[in-house]
Amino acid sequence: MAATARPQVYEIRSTFRAPLGFVFDWCTHYTTDDPRLEKEDYQRRILSRGKRQVVYEDLQDLPGGWMWSRQTVTLHPPNRWHAEAFGSHRVWSLDYTLRDLPDGRTEMTLRGERRPTPIGGRNPPKARLERELRASWKNFGVALERDFRRRSKSRRRKRN
After folding, report:
1. What phi and psi values does residue 34 have, to the nearest 5 degrees?
2. Residue 2 covered by a domain
3. Beta strand 8-16 pairing with 43-49
4. Per DSSP, what are the bridge partners of residue 12?
5. pLDDT > 90: percent of the chain
6. Is residue 129 assigned to a domain?
7. Within a domain: residue 160?
8. Burial, 137: exposed, middle or buried (Cβ in 10 Å; 0-12, 13-18, 19+)?
């Protein structure tokens, strides 16, 4: 049975031109606009948001039916968060870690273990899914850095 299959481990790194505190806040402020930022076609619904935990659901219409997932994200400020996701096609356990880099940049490491459900079929090849994850985070990174530049520009104006 696919649900008891051994999990596949995936890991990617992304670098953002923004300080760690901003990156943590931006990445952990889940919104219904996230699919647009990621350039993906799914719907997100935020179920609850607390100081240390966020729960949301994603729903995507696929040719063979819908794909649903619920993520429970536990926040560990200032530089980590953990997500447990279960859904119709897969089960994920994800760890995100941020680290300061020179010149005000931040590196994010995403490490996840993914198990398919019986309806989800086999895990995709490691290289393909890591490439897809990097592409998603590249899109998020563009929006994150744009938001950081806007906020920095706004602060400079207020000081003058």
Report:
1. -55, -40
2. no
3. unpaired
4. 110
5. 79
6. yes
7. no
8. buried
Give whole-number Cα distances, 143 to 49, 72, 114, 130, 140, in Å. Answer: 22, 23, 26, 20, 5
Here the CATH number for the domain that contains residue 58 is 3.30.530.20
Quickly count helices (H) and strands (E) in the chain: 3, 7
Q: How confident is the model at residue 76 (pLDDT cuts 50, 70, 90)?
A: very high
Burial of 67 (0-12, 13-18, 19+ CB in 10 A): middle
- Asked if 73 and 81 count as a contact pair (C-beta separation under 8 A), the reply is yes
pLDDT digits (tens, 9 = 90+) for 50-69: 999 999 999 999 888 899 99
> How many domains is the chain built from?
1
20-56 exposure pattern, b = at least 16 Cβ within 10 A, e = fewer: bebbbebbbeeeeebeebbeeebebeeeeeeeeebeb
Q: Which residue has the tokens 């760890």?
A: 95
Name the residue range of residue 148's domain. Answer: 9-154
Domain-located, residue 85: yes
* 50 vs 57: CA distance, rounded Å: 16
Amino acid residing at 71: Q
**What residues contact 102, with CB distance under 8 A and at least 6 apart?**
none
With beta carbons less than 8 A apart as the criterion, state whether 89 and 117 touch.
yes
